[in-house]
Amino acid sequence: MSPLDENQAAARAASGNGIRTDLKLIAEMVEPGSRVLDVGCGDGALLAFLSRQKGVDARGIELSMDGVHQCVAQGLSVIQGDAETDLKDYPPGAFDYVILSQTLQAMREPRTVLETMTRIGRRAIVSVPNFGYWRIRVQLLLTGRMPVTEKLGYQWWETPNIHFCTIKDFVVLAEEMGIRIERCMIVNRAGRITGHAHSGLANLLGEQGVFLLRRD
Amino acid sequence: MSAPNPAAAVSAAVPAEPATMPGHRVTLGVDRPMRLDSGAELGPFEVAYQTYGALNADRSNAVLICHALTGDHYVLDQHPVTGKPGWWEMLVGPGKPVDTDRYFVICSNVIGGCMGSTGPKETDPATGKPYGLGFPVITIGDMVRAQKLLVEHLGIDQLFCVIGGSMGGMQVLQWAVAYPESVFAAVPIATAARHSAQNIAFHEVGRQAIMADPDWAGGNYLLEGTRPHRGLAVARMAAHITYLSEPALHRKFGRNLQNRQTVTYGFDADFQVESYLRHQGITFVERFDANSYLYITRAMDYFDLAADYGGGTLSNAFRKDGKGTPVRFCLASFSSDWLFPTSESRAIVHALNAVAANVSFVEIRTDKGHDSFLLDEPEFHQVVRGFLDGCAEHRGLTRPSRP
C-alpha cells in the first residue's frame, strides 16, 4: 500500500460511513449522469459510489499499481498514470468534472495541475487539507515541531505532501489563476460544514476544504 | 544424455498433420475476392477456426480471441500436432476470466498461417501447387478483414470483446480502429500501435536465417521435397530470447551446465540455456511452416496504426465521426517485457486519452517478460475478469445461472 492509500484508508475508517466525508461532499456536487475523471482515485471508492449511485460515466487515474488493480478488477475504468504528466493529453472539456481529493498537496506543481484540471473539465472539484487548522497551529506553537494529525499522519521526513496550504492560501491561488470558486464547503472534525471560504474562522476551524471550481 | 543436436534431430521431423484437424473450416471470399492492403486479391480462401461456449439469442456475447505470431485457433483444445494443452486455457474456459459459460468464444487461425487457414503452404487453385512465395504479402489489416468476414458468416454484427496479446493485440487495435461499431470492448495486451525498428530488426534476423538455409530452396521447399528446418529453428531460437527476460532466463538456467560437471571447450550445448533454446527450435519446426513465418513476421513489421489511419498521429486513428472511439479499452503490459515495453502501451493510452475514450490501463509487475500473457499471472487474470464483468454490466449481458 502506498502512503496515499494508507492515508485514504485511515481517513475512511475514521469517517465510519463507508465513504470518506470529503468524498461524500464531492459526490453531492456531481450531477447525475455526468462525465467524471477522478485524479488519484486510490482504490476507486468514489468512482464506484458515483457510477452506482449517480449513473456517472466515471473514469480514474491512479499512480499506485495496487490501486489500479483494485479498480480495474472491480470493473472501473482506471488507468495507471501520473496526474502531472498524463492529464495533458485530454482535450478541453473532456469531462464535466475533474476531481482531485486530498492530493493537491502531494503534487510537484499544484498550479499546473489546477490549470490542467480546469481545462479538461468543465468544472473541477478539489479537496485540500487545511494547514491553518487550529490543531495544527497549536501543535506547532506549543511543541515547536512539525504537526502530525489524524488527516496528516506523517512525520516531516516521510510525508508525500510537499506543498501544504491553508484554506486561505488556496482561495488566494484560485483568484490569482482566474478560477472561480462556485461552491465551497468547510469541513471540521465532526464532518460538518462550518462557513465560507473567505472567513478567517473557516480557515481556523476547518480541517479541510472542498471546492467546486470553474475557469472564468 | 547429451544435448540434442538440432540439425540431426530436426531433419527427421516431418509435418505431422493429422488427416482431419479438430475445429471448423469455412471458405470465404467466394462471391467476391478479398482485396488486400497490397492491392492483390485473395479468394476464395479458407479460414480455420474454433468456437467455445454458446452464442446467446441476441448474438451479443461473442468474444473474438486473436492469437500471437506463432499461435493458432486451439485456445482450449489439445494441440493436434504437439499434444500440448490449449495456449490460453489459463485465461479462457468455464468459470475462467473469459468465461465460456457466459461468452461465445471464437478464435481463427490467421490467413497466412499454417494450421488450416489459407497460407503459403496451401494449394493455389490457379496453379494446383503450393502458393510458396506466390502467396500475396498480407498485413494485420488483411488478417482482421478475413476475421470480419468470418464473424459476419457466423451472423454476428457486434463482438462483445476482441482480446489478444502481442500480434493478437495488434489485431485487437486494428479491429477497434477499422470496425469501431462492430466492437464493444477491446483488450490489447503486451502490444504496440506500430512495430518498432528494434522488433523489425529481430524479425529480419529470423527471416534471413530461414532464407539462408539451402533447404529453403527459394521458398519452393514443398515442391523440392526439402524443409528449411535449421533456418526456422534458428529463427525461433532468436525470437524466443526476446519473449523472455534476463531475470527469468537467469532464474531458470543461470550459467548451469547441461548434464556435465565442466565445460567441454567445444560447441556442444554446454549450458542449460543452450539446450533449452535448441529444444525450443526443434519443437517449433514440427508445428510451423517456414514460409508462414516469413509472411506473418512481415505483417507485424508493416503494422503502423498512426500511419495507416491517423495521418501520422495515433489519436486520429481513434476518432470516429469527429468524436472519440465508442470502444471501451483495457490495456495491459508487463513490466519486464522489453519486446513490447510498457511505454508502447502507454503511447496508446495517451492517444486514447486525447479523444477522451473510455480506457483502463494496468502494468503488471512480473519478471517473466513478454510471454507473461500466456503464463499464470493472477493479477493479469483478475484485471481481465474485472474489465469483462464491468463491460458485461454495461452491455446488459446477464450472468447465466449456474446449476
From TrEMBL, chain A:
Domain of life: Bacteria
SUPFAM superfamilies linked to this entry: S-adenosyl-L-methionine-dependent methyltransferases
InterPro entries, sorted: Methionine_synth_MetW, SAM-dependent_MTases_sf
UniProt entry tagged with the keyword Calcium: no
Entry keyword set: Plasmid
Keyword Protein transport (UniProt): no
Entry-linked NCBIfam families: metW (TIGR02081)
Name the UniProt record assigns to this protein: Methionine biosynthesis protein MetW
Annotated gene: metW
From TrEMBL, chain B:
Coiled coil (UniProt feature): none
Pfam family, one: Abhydrolase_1
Keywords: Acyltransferase, Amino-acid biosynthesis, Cytoplasm, Methionine biosynthesis, Transferase
Residues annotated as domain AB hydrolase-1: 61-375
Catalyzed reactions: L-homoserine + acetyl-CoA = O-acetyl-L-homoserine + CoA
GO molecular function list: homoserine O-acetyltransferase activity
EC id: 2.3.1.31
Domain of life according to the entry: Bacteria
Database matches in InterPro entries: AB_hydrolase_1, AB_hydrolase_fold, HAT_MetX-like
Name the UniProt record assigns to this protein: Homoserine O-acetyltransferase
Main EC class the enzyme belongs to: transferase
Function: Transfers an acetyl group from acetyl-CoA to L-homoserine, forming acetyl-L-homoserine.
Family in the record: Belongs to the AB hydrolase superfamily. MetX family.
This protein's encoding gene: metXA
Compartments (UniProt record): Cytoplasm
SUPFAM superfamilies on file: alpha/beta-Hydrolases (SSF53474)
